[in-house]
Amino acid sequence: MSSFCVFFGKNLFVFPYSLPLQRIFKIDKMNTVRLTKEFDFEAAHALDGYGGKCKDIHGHSYHLKITTIGKPIEDAANPTCGMVIDFGDLKQIVKKHILSIFDHYLILRKDSRFRGLEKTNPRVRYVDYQPTCENMLIDIVGILQQHLPDEVKLHSALLRETANSYAEWFASDND
Ligand SMILES: [Zn+2]
Question: Domain range for residue 9?
Answer without folding.
Answer: 1-30
